[in-house]
């Protein structure tokens, strides 16, 4: 009797555990996660098993992917049939698209911003049409760690300067800026220190360079800049274009010219053209 009373009293005194985050249904957790950005989802996935499981739900990550992500995959991985046969979940597709994926023979890179899911792109100097590029008297390619493509086109001297490029791509809806990444002076590294050789820099202060872009749906932009600040990589804005609906394909053309033949110009590094949301 005493033992029975003691046991029942002990049982009555023990408080019942309260529900915690781990008791929430995964479907409820996933519904909440769908409103968060990807970094927040990944942080919450470490809380417990329910959050970890919910963070893998396809509908959570499909809302972060571009509406036309399948067109993007087809364009970027057109030669990689394995990508389509892996049966990747939406979270893994998002992670794969957030890495800098090379396409068009390695001349271009594209990725999704990890936070916003918006499309960013780089086009190397190898993917541009540069007048006189094959003549070593004017241009040369130099290796450098300061480029994501590990090399840049370097101009020693020329009279007629023209750089053209184009990209045809299924851009998701949004507004994009086109920028030329340039530097006056030749990058060097000596004893671990970054240096810049300005020996050939001349002519860019006499006339501005003209930057232009156009799209297949009639958008156009023109800007002019004097190139300056030797030793600094600068993004020169050629203009913006707008994609109103996620498209199957849009062609964007862009150029940089300085064709005033009254003087020479030189000492310029052309690294890449950058396209990213603005």
From TrEMBL:
Any one Pfam family match given in the protein's UniProt record, by short name: PP2
Location of the region described as Disordered in the Swiss-Prot/TrEMBL record: 1-20
Biased composition (Low complexity): 1-15
Boundaries of every F-box domain copy: 18-64
Coiled coil: none
InterPro entries, sorted: F-box-like_dom_sf, F-box_dom, PP2-like
Name of the molecule in the record: F-box domain-containing protein
Source species: Rehmannia glutinosa (Chinese foxglove)
